[in-house]
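Narrative summary of target 7.
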Amino acid sequence: MMSTESNQGEANYPACIARIAQTLGRWDGPIVIATHADPDGDALGSALALKRALASLGKATHLPLTPPRYLSFLAEPDELSDPLRVLPEDALVAVLDVDVGPRLAGVPVAGTVVSEAAFTVVIDHHGTNNRTGNLVCVEPRRAATAQMVKDIIDALPLTWTPQLATPCLTGLLTDTGNFRFGNTTPEVLHAAGDLLSYGVAYSDLTDRLGWRHPDYFRMLGKVMSTVTFPLGGLAALAEITQAMRAEVGPTDDDSNDYVGLIRYAEGALVALFLREEPSDDPQPRTKVSVRARRGVSAQAICVSLGGGGHVAAAGATVREGLEGTKALVLAAVRAELVRAGYDVPEA
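Modeled conformation, tokenized:
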């Protein structure tokens, strides 16, 4: 049985961060850093920042990760590696922004254990984390895992550089919606100010984070043509099908962007984006992205679908086709709207 040391609440957070920094700093073997499939800015940013910090201390580090095209500029050549089928001997695995389970990418996983890991550290800000590992720090009060990684790096014996601070700030920017979301706290803004003081080229970074391949905009027109407003307009829903992909060609259809656009539809409390996924498996898969406001929990909706996330933003992958997933999602949204006290029309 794996022994676990985990923080329990905000009061124990500083001690848990210090313990992680101490463990990473003293580890003599290789350190593998892993995060979830389809990494977002927080996943990639926190992983890159931690890798660079540990490498500056002389640690042998591995980051098996494939970023989306729009974030790939953050990584240096040869900084990322292919997925590891077998871990290096005596490897510590640092799991960021996800729990040890089916969404963890790049390392071999058996159930809720990283196979053959000598030690597992879990660092996450999602309250739905299953908290399995030798040393676990889960703090939903932090806006981003990158904010937690900043705290860890602050506790390490090194000097901040722009190369460290840039991916870390990226994680804060993306998970707070450029400091527009409700998780933007004074602590987040103080952390961002610290990172800026370390030499981040802020305007260049925010400009570059907005770049998208031309195919993204070709797909955008098709996505917007699918928008509907079910449940009496309390929800806004859009989708991408495999047929749409075939028409546009290879594209980086970042669903966070598309769901982020329709979330501003007047009157909508929930924004839903359904993405029909390619699969070699005969069973179809549909990725679901949810955004919610005003007492409605995107997390509750997605947990009921087998996913997770935050109250304001969450996601799930459903083993159904697009239409079947749509029915399941709308039922889950209706139930959450009713729970939150809203009068939901029948049609």
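The first strand starts at residue 5 and ends at 6.
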